[in-house]
Specification:
The complex is a heterodimer.
Chain A lengths: L4 E5 L3 H11 L4 E5 L2 H9 L6 E5 L7 H10 L8 E5 L4 H10 L3 E4 L4 H25 L10 H18 L3 E8 L2 H8 L1 H16 L8 E6 L2 E7 L3 H18 L14 E8 L8 H17 L5 E3 H8 L1
Parallel strand pairs in A: 1-2, 1-3, 3-4, 4-5, 9-10
Antiparallel strand pairs in A: 6-8, 6-9, 7-8
Chain B lengths: L6 H7 L4 H27 L3 H17 L3 H13 L5 H28 L13 H13 L6 H8 L7 H10 L3 H14 L1
Helix pairs in contact in B: 2-3, 2-5, 3-4, 4-5, 6-9, 7-8, 8-9
The chains are: A alpha/beta, B mainly alpha.
The structure holds magnesium ion.
């Protein structure tokens, strides 16, 4: 495991040197010599696990920097420790009231600095682990419904700014109840794992996500992807599941496990209130795919066309 | 009794790294002339905020380096500077500068007692190798330890810009340092 990362923000080079020398063996260190450059460091690259923030700095002081960091959702959870030679109790209280994790005084006592930092880093790593666990489906290792909703929310905001097409695919395993009845729940869980792996193997871009949505239902979102590309992706899902070759004697459409897919695309001509409507339409398309005999792909926009 | 500088406490704060400690002390003393020029300017135009900022900054640095008497004087000055007249401020500045001289003498005595440990130079590294290593670190805003710029010092005779680069890195002015470094690489 790589070392946790700490960002040190201080306008005084000597303080950076002294602080860094206390902790350089245990952590990866990043440096910013002003509030503004701290925000720049945070904007590029991976977020640090902890920020040590000097209070008194010219131009943007530590309190202001703190507020600006907290304004960004991606950085809202990074613990921040204020470091200052201010000795008034009110200053310490002000930092803690803002939501700082701790307050360390200059001149440093290296033992205390190390111990306090370790406490907060340990807590952060534990929180990260719990957060990860709460967003992961235990069985398949895919993101769970909660994680998917969070991700979709972000992609939806992105779509509203950029107006580039976004596609959703809702996926249901065909005759899965019959599968469980035939092979038992243990085997059913095993099949879901294999299905999850097969679906995940189709995902290549970092913003594309496939998740377990519940039971035998999966869902995938593809930003910057129009309906024709989404149809290709859905058929890739089908091919990979077919290739996984999970025997299913109780299926009425194949000798092995298959899936049905409901597709929906939103583009700059559409006016959706929110993504709930989109989920609803993907669900309707999936319902239609099952009604048409399963093991097929239906796009929401095509439902009306065939009905006419 | 440790007058002026508490060497033991300073070294302990740096995890026992005496070489680094002596380097940092040297740099602190080197930088005080400039700090005091700024301070006198600020006093002349009665820029209270700037006076406080400069005193606070020097106080923090001297505290962290265990330059104890100086830290104490700066701390008192910082607390009272708003109620002082320009003349009183200048008297304080004068006293503090004298204290710095004494601390500096103390530092020189201490240093001469102690043969400076050989630095960890990598003679096989070329200038381009050193610069490339630093470039990556600067781009990622990674901490660059004093020891790491020592490698560059042997090139200073041939390229005077290298000293400027070293100073920028030692002051953690990474954006400027990166600009300068890229210019040096171009010029090669
Ligand atoms: Mg400061």
């Amino acid at each position: 495991m790589s070392k946790p990362t700490i960002l040190i923000v201080d306008d005084e080079p000597t303080n950076i040197q002294v602080l860094a020398s206390c902790i350089v063996d245990d952590y990866q260190l990043k440096i910013a010599n002003s509030g503004a450059s701290a925000l720049e460091v945070l904007d590029k690259g991976q977020a640090p696990d902890l920020i040590l923030l000097d209070v008194i700095m010219p131009e943007m002081d530590g309190y202001e920097t703190f507020k600006r960091i907290r304004e960004k959702t991606d950085h809202a959870n990074i613990p921040i420790i204020f470091i200052s030679a201010l000795n008034a109790v009110e200053d310490e209280a002000k930092g803690l009231e803002l939501g700082a994790s701790d307050y360390i005084h200059k001149p440093f006592h290296s033992g205390i600095v190390r111990a306090r930092i370790k406490t907060h880093i340990d807590l952060k790593l534990k929180t990260d682990m719990l957060e990860h666990a709460s967003l992961t489906d235990f069985l398949t290792g895919l993101p769970n419904r909660r994680a998917f909703d969070k991700h979709l929310d972000r992609e939806w905001q992105y779509f509203r700014r950029r107006r580039l097409p976004l596609s959703l695919i809702m996926i249901d395993v065909d005759y899965f109840k019959a599968y469980n009845d035939t092979y038992g729940h243990m085997q059913g869980d095993e099949a879901l794992k294999q299905i999850g792996n097969a679906l995940q193997s189709c995902i290549n871009r970092s913003h594309d996500v496939v998740a377990r949505y519940g039971g035998e239902e999966f869902i995938a979102v593809f930003p910057e992807t129009d309906i024709s590309a989404a149809k290709h992706l859905a058929s890739l899902f089908q091919q990979r599941i077919f290739a996984a070759n999970i025997a299913h004697s109780a299926s009425q459409v194949s000798d092995r496990v298959t899936i049905s897919c409901g597709l929906v695309e939103v583009n700059d001509r559409d006016h959706y209130e929110d993504y709930q409507a989109l989920l609803q339409e993907a669900d309707e398309a999936l319902y239609e795919a099952k009604a048409k005999g399963r093991n097929c792909i239906v796009s929401y926009r095509d439902i009306g066309v065939t009905a006419e | 009794m440790n007058e002026h500088i508490d060497f033991d406490a300073g070294i302990k704060r740096l995890g026992g790294n005496k070489t680094l400690y002596l380097q940092l002390l040297q740099r602190f003393f080197d930088s005080t002339t400039e700090s005091f020029n700024s301070l006198k300017d600020a006093i002349a135009i009665k820029d209270q905020q700037q006076i406080k900022m400069l005193l606070h900054s020097m106080k923090g640095a001297s505290g962290n380096l265990s330059i104890v008497t100086l830290q104490h004087m700066l701390s008192n000055f910082e607390r009272q500077c708003e109620s002082f007249s320009t003349e009183e401020c200048l008297i304080h500045v004068h006293n503090i500068q004298q204290e710095i001289q004494q601390s500096q003498q103390k530092y020189q005595q201490y240093q001469s007692l102690d043969a400076v440990a050989p630095s960890s130079l990598h003679p096989q590294k070329t200038l381009i190798e050193c610069l490339s290593e630093l470039e990556t670190k600067l781009r990622n805003s990674e901490f660059i330890a004093v020891e790491q710029v020592l490698n560059l010092k042997k090139f200073v005779e041939h390229h005077s810009d290298i000293q400027t680069l070293i100073t920028k890195i030692e002051n953690f002015e990474y954006a400027l340092a990166l600009e300068l470094l890229l210019g040096l690489k171009e010029g090669k």
